[in-house]
Design brief:
By secondary structure, the protein is mostly helical. It is built from 7 helices and 2 strands; from the N terminus they run ααββααααα. A two-stranded antiparallel ribbon has the order 1-2. A hairpin with a 5-residue loop joins strand 1 and strand 2. Helix 4 crosses helix 5 and helix 6 runs antiparallel to helix 7. It is globular, with a radius of gyration of 18 Å. About 30% of the residues are buried.
């Protein structure tokens, strides 16, 4: 699997886990995954247009391009499904770890995007995935830059770096 495909898998995993949380973790992760990957009506081009509001205000609208999950290849979908299934199975333990290292932030105060990106990254840090921790952390930072706030990348980096240290010292 190429680096680009792995990133697509991680982004898809983030989208699925975000939806899973929004649904209160009540559906099975496999059902949420199937609903997300069946999305096919996502805008594929970037367009800018002017829209007049009811109050007469003129507003510039920019639609951005996005990959439609239904067009992703099977390798991308399979790796994303593997990540989200593992993250769902270990959700409580992961949330305890994240709460431990985000001690100046209550877990509920984190943005939903940051929280779910951290859950996905912690899952992928498991030796089952055989991905070096610096790669997992770097990918999480890059995805945080795309989908997060201005501070998300720094926040994600700080938390994952502490968790990586704990994992590495535990495995010695």
């Amino acid at each position: 699997m190429s680096k680009t495909e792995r990133r697509q898998s991680r982004i898809l995993a983030l989208q699925v886990f975000f939806c899973y949380e929004q649904q209160g973790f009540e559906s099975s992760i496999e059902d949420v995954f199937e609903r997300v990957v069946s999305l096919s009506d996502v805008e594929k081009t970037t367009e800018e247009y002017i829209q007049e509001q009811e109050n007469g205000e003129i507003k510039k609208i920019l639609q951005t391009a996005a990959d439609s999950p239904s067009t992703l290849n099977e390798n991308v979908k399979n790796y994303a499904l593997e990540i989200v299934k593992f993250a769902a199975q270990n959700l409580r333990a992961t949330d305890v770890i994240l709460s431990k290292y985000a001690h100046s932030w209550s877990f509920e105060r984190m943005s939903a995007m940051d929280r779910n990106l951290l859950r996905i990254a912690v899952a992928e840090l498991d030796e089952k995935f055989a991905v070096p921790p610096p790669v997992v952390i770097n990918e999480a930072i890059e995805i945080a830059k795309i989908f997060g706030t201005d501070d998300s990348a720094k926040f994600v980096n700080a938390i994952l770096d502490k968790i990586k240290y704990e994992i590495l010292t535990k495995n010695k």
